[in-house]
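Why does residue order matter? Because the sequence determines the fold. Keep that principle in mind as you read this record.
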Amino acid sequence: MPDRSRTFGAVAASYERFRPGYPDELVDAVLEYAARPIRTAFEIGAGTGKATRAFAARGVVVTASDPDEAMLAELRRHVGGPVETVVGAFEDVAMSRTFDLVLAAAALHWTRAEGRWERIAALLPDGGVLASFGGPTGLADPALEEAAQRARAPFVEDDGVRPPEGTTPGSPLGWPGNELLRTPLFTDVREVLLPRRLRMPAEEYLGLLSTISAYLVLPEEDREAALAAIRAVLPDTVDVTADLVLHLARRVR
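Structure:
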C-alpha cells in the first residue's frame, strides 16, 4: 500500500483547484488567541498553500514546508506575500530559528508521533503558539451521504483519515488536543469549532474527492470507477459540510 501522505504531488493542480481554502474567521481566532504580535510562522505540510495565503495576507512571514516539491511549486504559483518554501518532511527539516507560530492545516496527522511535540516546541519561543486545524468534508444531506458511501464501498471502505492516536477516553478534547493536554511542553489548550457549509456542482465535489488520499492510492481504473459510481447517485449541485476544528496551544514559558 502506498504511503498516503506522499500521494498528493501527483494531483497538485487538482488539489489547488478543488480543495477549499480557509476563512478569515480562522485566522482571526488564531491571532486573537495569540494576544501578541504574530510576525513569523512555520507551516507543517503546507501543500499548495491554502492556509499559507490566509496568514500571509495578514502580513505573517510564513516558512512553508512540505515533503513534495510539486505541491510547493503550486504554492509558489498562487501565494503572494512573504513566503519561504522548504522541501522536506517535518521530521527532516532543520531550523536554527524560532517562530511566533507553528501551524498545520490538515497535516499534523501525517507527522511521526514519536517526538512530535518536542519538535514543534523547539520551533517556538516561550509563549509561542501552535495552531492545528482541519476537518472532514461530507455531503450535508445524510441520505445522500449514505448513498455515496454505498456507491464507493466496493472500492473505498472509508475515505477519511483517522487521527493517529484516536481520542483518549474521558478527554474533553479530540485529537490532537487530547495529547496536548498531557504534554508538559504546552499549556492553555483550546478547541474551537468553526462550522462551514459549501455549495458546489457535483463535478467539483468529485474533483475534491479525487484529491483525497484514500482515492489516490487506488489503481487508476478503480479510482475512476469509484468516482463514477458516486456521481451516479448525486444531483447536479450538492451541499457539503466542511466544518473546521481548530486546536490551539501555547509553548510553556
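The mean pLDDT is 92.
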